Each structure stands twice: as C-alpha cells, then as structure tokens.
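Notebook p. 47: complex prediction with manganese (II) ion.
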Amino acid sequence: MIISMRPHATREEIDHVCERIREFGYKVHSIEGEERVVIGVVGIGDVTACLESLEATPGVERAMRISAPYKFVSKEFKKERTQVRVDGHEIGGEEFIVMAGPCSVESEQQIMETAEGVRKAGARILRGGAFKPRTSPYDFQGMELEGLKLLRKAKEATGLAIITEVMSDRDVELVAEYADIMQVGARNMQNFALLKSLGKCGRPILLKRGMSSTIKELLMSAEYLVAHGNSNVLLCERGIRTFETATRNTCDIAAVPVLNEMTHLPVILDPSHATGKRSLVPAVARAGVAIGADGMIVEVHPNPEKAVSDGAQSLTLDQFRNMMTQLKPYFDLWKQARVAELAAAGV
Ligand code: PEP
Ligand code: MN
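Predicted complex, structure tokens below:
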C-alpha cells in the first residue's frame, strides 16, 4: 500500500500516519519529495483495515493498494510515464534519446574525437567507462579519475551530457561530480550497498539488467534506488545469458514492452552488449525504436580494432552516422506516437 500525503501536510500529520501504520503492524518507508511525502507501507497480510482507517486520517490525500512487491516503480503507483531530466533533455518525453561513445575512455584524442562525431550524428549523451567491470583481473580496468576528467573535457567541448559507470559505493561521490547519469553495470544490478548509496547521490541512474536477472529482480533493484530517495531511474535491457552462442547475450527485446506495462520508468536498450557484434547493432537498435524504448545506449569507437574493450561490438563513427540516418524515419514515427500518447494522457 502507498499513502500519498496532501501537498504541504504538516510534520505532525505525517508522523501520525506513520504511527498508525506501525500500530497496524506494518513497516513504513517514506519518500520526502519537494511537494509531498509519499509513504510506502510494507508488510504481509490484508491491508484493508489499515487502508480504510488511513483514508480518513488528516493530511492523507490518497491511500492505494499495490499488489506488486515493487511499489514505487510500479504502474499501479503511477500511471504517467516518468520523465527524467538530464542537462536540458527529457528521457521518457517527446524525444528518443541516443547515448553513444566508447566502452572505455582510453585517451584524450579518442574521447574527444568520438564525442564530436556522435554529437554531429545526433547523440545527446556521451558514454564512456572510467571504472570498468572486467571479467579478468588482467584486463584494462579503466582510467579512473583521469578518465572522468577527460569526460568532463569532452562535455565542455561538445555540450554533451555524460553517462559513466560507478562500480563501488566508495566511488559514488567522486563519479557524481563528473557524471550527469550514473551507470550501474549488469554485474552490479544487485550490489545493494551501491544501490543504497546511489539513492542519495542526486544524479539520475541508468540501471542495467543483470545478465541472469529476471525483469522482476530488475524492478526490485530499481525499487531500492527509489526507496532510498532517488526516483530518477532509467532501466536498461542489455541482453541476458541463454544457451544461445551466436550472440554475446540474448537480446530480450520483449522486455521493453513488458517493462512499459509494469513500470512508469523509462526504458533504454543497449544493442551493443545485447549482441556483441557490430553488424547486428543497427537492426537491434531499429527494433528498440520500433518497440517503444525511450532511448538507446550504443558503443562507438573511432578505431574499434584498437579498442581496449568491446571492440567487436563497437561501431565506427561512420557506421554510427549511417545508422542514425537510417533510423531517422523510425525516430519520426516514434515521436508522432509519443506526442499523441502524451497528449491523450493530458501531459
Ligand atoms: C558497459 O556498458 O560497457 C558495460 C560493462 O555494460 P554491462 O554492464 O551491461 O555489461
Ligand atoms: Mn562495454
């Protein structure tokens, strides 16, 4: 159950509602927004008596029954799409947002050239890992602080917003100084200590689906972020592990509409990690636009052959430009559909 307090309900009213919830034997999880406080009621058993009582309690605007274990991220809690604002762009709004850049930040020359190229082709956000989660401890681990500084330089030169990965709760503050969006990698989707500290980082989060995680588990991880104070969450489908070996991962393309049914959060598709193979990226990207994702994140490298990570799935700048040109009619159709949907919803 979720209790939405009236805007500007008093502290006494809020405390009283929390008190009543505890008296009924449930736990309280509240989110203090700018305008209003929303209280999550967590526990087992029939909530009817508690719900009816709270509906009549001063300061309460609405009490809603929510059956899913993830409450704040569910469609039951909020029907309207969440729009996440990043540096003047709205993800989940009227534009399909493209994030592009190398897997890893490798050098000034590499990141600047990529940033300029992807910006010209229509990307809004520059990706680039400074902290890299690598399967082997002997592989390149990322440029760390030096990489973050190069990303800042690229932002200053191009105006692109920055998305970069944070791997540990120890690095949250540092990465938040440089990133416009904090990326949580597939391997860290259930790093709960990291999720908890990201709740308070003040930056939007791109949460990647774990390679062996169900959609429900992805939503539970998103719930951690929201329950700990951060409702600016983007969900990312990046392929899952199956018996198939023709692609690096199996792109669960249906996860996009499934998530659109289950949650109000924006959904981003990663056709690069989902396929592992550059020749497959444009087709899967097209599918992502057509199936109603809110954006995509694509790996692009000026010289993939020399890339220190994920070269095989990285597009060259030319290939990225061509893909964006070929996607233009799909972006236009996407926009028409989205504008009509938002107008119908009265947004
Ligand atoms: C990446 O974006 O480079 C990355 C490591 O992705 P994932 O966490 O999805 O494997
Ligand atoms: Mn990568």
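Notes: Residues 135 and 187 are 10 Å apart (CA to CA). The mean pLDDT is 96.
Next step: compare against the earlier run before touching the bench.
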